[in-house]
Specification:
The chain has 360 residues and is α/β, with parallel strands linked by helices. Helix content is 64%, strand content 6%. It contains 14 helices and four strands. Strands 2-1-3-4 form a four-stranded mixed beta sheet, sandwiched between helices. Helix 2 (19-40) packs antiparallel against helix 9 (208-235) and helix 7 (132-159) runs antiparallel to helix 8 (167-179). The longest helix is centred in the C-terminal third of the chain and has 35 residues, at 244-278. 31% of the residues are buried.
């Protein structure tokens, strides 16, 4: 056990003597601080840059109330504000506090079920409003989510296409196509405007995810490079005199220690950025440490597997660029590849950076 502690101390100390590792460490620290600042320092900008749209429900039917709740919960550049009556909403529209007003009619749910839904939503907008098409898409996307299942079931019942009750199967297929990557999704956002919040204790799926994705990739790279260093030491017969169990522990520590160091620096950097913008959040720091530990373990397992497969440092060095390239494309760092290649949804799950971008 003392030998393991000695190795742990020596390996940790040796990491800081390697120029490449120090370069990765500095870059990870800088990116993580910017990630914290960008993601959590943007909540004020979200409120200032949001386009306000008024929504009015002329009566309290179930569909109108659900639509109001869904739109009020919408988190994006367009912000929906509920009004009790159309007059108050139009007044704010005239004073330029709103860019548009959308009025849901009386008996909205009945009209949707009966098919009388053409021109049933009244839209009043400013002449300078150039994003109304996007606002309409957001509105109707929420409407389809709420009313689509009922309309599909109603259509199946009226046409008599199916003799048996298949409501459960219809609902399952509907959810698959609405929420799946195969369906086109319109995401309306503004450059350098992020979906974030100070109390959600997560890194949001926004432009800042590029930064956190790069940090995750650096953690992954540090761990894989540790595996290369281990193979080099094996080629120098550094572990010939040790037992296989002892050599295996060294194989683990060589990749785990550098990945863990980078993840700790990243957690501190992100927390520093958040603290600078919105104050210290201990629970977030603890969660980032936990995520970093988990990703470091996954990275170490990957590195160990590669050392057994490659066996020589030169082979592992040659495969490293290809592994990183696949990781960058499979994981949603720069682009959501799964939207174009469905298999990417499963490929990205074997890469540790994916779990840093989308933590538990």
């Amino acid at each position: 056990m003392n030998k393991i502690y000695t190795w742990l101390a020596v390996l940790t100390k040796n990491q800081f003597k390697k120029p490449m590792f120090m370069f990765i460490l500095v870059i990870a620290a800088i990116l993580s601080v910017f990630c914290g600042l960008e993601d959590y320092g943007s909540s004020d900008r979200d409120n200032e840059s949001a386009y306000n749209v008024g929504i009015v429900a002329l009566d309290g039917n179930a569909l109108s109330l659900k639509m109001a709740d869904a739109l009020l919960a919408y988190n994006g550049t367009v912000r929906f504000i509920e009004y009790k009556n159309e007059e108050d909403a139009v007044k704010d529209l005239l004073s330029s506090e709103l860019i548009a007003v959308m009025v849901m009619p009386e008996h909205f749910d009945i009209r949707m079920q009966s098919g009388d839904y053409f021109h049933c939503v009244k839209v009043i907008k400013q002449p300078s409003n150039i994003i109304q098409l996007a606002v309409n898409e957001i509105f109707y996307a929420e409407l389809i989510k709420l009313a689509g299942k009922d309309l599909i079931q109603q259509y199946a019942d009226e046409t008599g296409l199916f003799t048996d009750d298949i409501s459960g199967e219809l609902e399952s297929y509907y959810d698959e196509y609405v929420n799946g990557d195969n369906t086109f999704h319109l995401i309306f956002t503004e450059y350098e405007t992020y979906e974030s919040g100070t109390n959600n204790n997560t890194i949001s799926d926004s432009a800042s995810s590029v930064l956190i994705g790069m940090v995750a990739t650096l953690i992954y790279l540090a761990g894989l490079m540790g595996g290369i260093v281990f193979l080099r030491d094996c080629e120098k017969n550094a572990f010939v005199i040790y037992k296989k169990s002892t050599a295996f522990i060294a194989r683990v520590l060589y990749s785990f220690i550098p990945a863990l160091i980078i993840s700790i620096v990243a957690a501190l950097g992100i927390t520093f950025g958040i603290t600078f913008a919105n104050g210290f959040d201990l629970s977030f720091l603890v969660k980032q440490f936990a995520i970093g530990l988990f990703v470091s373990v996954l990275t170490s397992l990957t590195s160990i597997l590669l050392t057994y497969i490659c066996r020589k440092s030169s082979i592992m060095i040659a495969t490293l660029p290809m592994i990183l390239l696949i990781c960058l494309f499979a994981c949603p760092i720069f682009i959501n590849t799964a939207a174009y290649i469905p298999a990417a949804r499963y490929i990205r799950m074997i890469f540790a950076p994916y779990y840093y971008i989308h933590p538990f």
